[in-house]
């Protein structure tokens, strides 16, 4: 049987990827950011997940205004890093676990979540920066990845509750897959940040730390936060945090906090990172 | 009945909703075209001619030529689409964001190092009299 054993949340700031790709990770500015992931790299080397379901958002890279799916599950064979305007990141292609992805699609859609299936797309920093933070700079990613892209660009994104409930459906899907697989789920994006307009640069450390606290054992209450509160309190891009709730919904009610990291700033953003294991 | 937009009273913020996506369809699709290296070259060689290939309004084109990101967003641009323009210019997200705030790049970077812009006084338009 496949099993979700652990979850990871992390911000996916593009400048973190650029710092790593350009050999700047030892600069004073970036050192504390990468140091927050030292434990994580050791932890994941021991955990050796077979598959990561990676919840992220596309930043107008794969999805133009031609097509804006609310939830898009990657079921194709492989995904290349996107050219976001400065050439693709020099990171490996992402290979999908196609059998598990198809199984998840069938199970979750049957459970009333109307996913879009994506077989061909490029993946941008939203997906590749978390992989870099957790695995460093390997020749090939050491596990299969099932991308789950959530629309948080065109307002409104799905609600926190919808995301949390989708997480539960994902867990049910994974646990009904016959092959023995060690599966992790990652929720990425956030924490507070605003990248646009005269209010750009907004950071709300109180909101973020409260979110991190409650994420462990009171995620039900976080799922009820309305969009307006995210935007007002955590910035227009802080709403990415709804994606963390998919990860949390896919874990057990009781979890063990293995690691917690919070740092301001990485470029325009508050970086938050948690590792949770199922109890 | 019109759909309520309670986010309209958040200062210094344009929410990219379905109405803005309609207004900004062409400017955003133009920006996205810059994800291809050959298009970036053509745009850099003659920005005006490249823009004229798109069904954008004159105001939208002028805002792009001026690199006035607040103006572009007020005309339907979304920051993740527009990011392809400042990436083509070789500028980081932080430099672009600073340009939207009226602060110098250095002032903005220092504000972020100091913990970012506080939400206090920045949650509602009525708190903003004479500020942003």
Automatic annotation (TrEMBL), chain A:
SUPFAM superfamilies: LigB-like (SSF53213). Pfam families: LigB. It comes from the Bacteria. Gene3D superfamilies: LigB-like. The keyword Oxidoreductase applies. The keyword Transport does not apply. GO terms for molecular function: ferrous iron binding; protocatechuate 4,5-dioxygenase activity. Keywords: Dioxygenase, Oxidoreductase. Residues 8-271 form the Extradiol ring-cleavage dioxygenase class III enzyme subunit B domain. This is Protocatechuate 3,4-dioxygenase. It comes from SAR86 cluster bacterium.
Automatic annotation (TrEMBL), chain B:
Keywords: Dioxygenase, Oxidoreductase. CDD domains: PCA_45_Doxase_A (cd07924). Residues 27-112 form the Extradiol ring-cleavage dioxygenase LigAB LigA subunit domain. GO terms for molecular function: dioxygenase activity. NCBIfam families: PCA_ligA, PRK13377.1. This is Protocatechuate 4,5-dioxygenase subunit alpha. It comes from SAR86 cluster bacterium.
